[in-house]
């Protein structure tokens, strides 16, 4: 293990986090918050800067990184970012419990959106900004951002880092050099972020929040861009005007697309974009899911408390489908009270996720498409052993190794899902009732298997809110410290797609080479 090289890159990451923390510090000055809030960011900034520079001192014996080192470094980076990123919440008292603070900021960096905060109105602007800004930071990846600045090696080290952090089964360059690739990706990411902020500012201010329109537009866009979902107002996105809800729904779908497709559009290869099998599956599922939920709401809504108009039923259907499928977790209504058909569709979307190479979590549609083709090949082979597979994906031959890797990932994903559900079964909160107050009225739900199942699925798929006692109008606060630690690790497993975390905690990884 190349400890000095790992330390050098880790030091750069820590300095980067210190620089990023300057943004919420500036926010605390803008809104004239007490000295406690300014100090809560100054202390971590100083700690990160000092430790980061100390880690730069030892010179590495070799500059290259092997694949296992790249994967281990990725997992280590996200843990360090979380441990220091949680300090401001503890120091300013907004989240005094350190485990809770780590849960909250890991949820931010992994773009999950699960929260332990029960009353969002009690947080100051700087804390709200840091929560949402963490979505934007983690959306494209922390190491992806660092690759813009560190020198590119000729041994594939940069590709190992990108492959470890980028979501989806395949990672490749869209330009000749990795540094150029990462710059292009971030320029597209920044451009789309700015565009959404501008469009949201065109809408009428939310009544009662007129003076905060720009702030709300920015932090909400951070959640959309990173497909994270931390709300800054009571009821998540419920208070926003219909225009803004439609805008966010469209941008969520856009951020759920593979960013390489936007590069193809920029260089004029539009036909190649529409040939994408994954894009066709993505848009097809969205249209089908919206139609199913919309029809179920129209047909059965009289039996449910919300009593939407036709336009409201369509808007909520579109928004929730785009939010859940892109693993964002923003909500405009209490979908817990929806008909069984509608909630079943949402459950299924929690598994799928959006496209590979996007900021979304979940299994990813590319894997599901490959798994479907692999299953078809295996069935054909059983019927005719002489059958020669000719399956293709995105114009390339689908090799058996790729299919096996996809099946292995899905198996591991499901195994971890049920292991975490089992561990949550021992939580003291099980059996307790939780009062929910939403646009569906006031009602009670029981903290049980459905809660634990949806909480685990929401964390490993980086969605955030689940169902029942962790639904859109409830938080994860009821879980004990041990369960929160398990769910925190589950969020990281989901964001880094399991392998980097497993490699990080493997003994063989840390043997010297």
How would you summarize the topology of this molecule?
Elements: H1 3-20, H2 22-30, H3 35-54, H4 67-85, H5 87-92, H6 98-109, H7 125-140, H8 142-146, H9 157-165, H10 178-201, H11 213-225, H12 242-255, H13 259-266, H14 270-274, H15 277-300, H16 310-325, H17 340-352, H18 365-383, E1 392-393, E2 396-397, H19 400-424, E3 433-438, E4 441-446, H20 449-460, H21 481-495, H22 499-504
Antiparallel strand pairs: 1-2, 3-4
Features:
513 residues; mainly alpha; two-stranded antiparallel ribbon; 4 strands; 60% helix
Approximate shape: globular
Beta percentage is: under 5%
**Number of extended strands:** 4
Mean pLDDT: 88
Q: Can you put this structure into words, describing what you see?
A:
- This protein has helices at 3-20, 22-30, 35-54, 67-85, 87-92, 98-109, 125-140, 142-146, 157-165, 178-201, 213-225, 242-255, 259-266, 270-274, 277-300, 310-325, 340-352, 365-383, 400-424, 449-460, 481-495, 499-504; strands at residues 392-393, 396-397, 433-438, 441-446.
- By secondary structure, the protein is mainly α.
- A hairpin with a 2-residue loop joins strand 3 (433-438) and strand 4 (441-446).
- Helix 18 (365-383) crosses helix 19 (400-424).
- Residues 152-156 have low confidence and may be disordered.
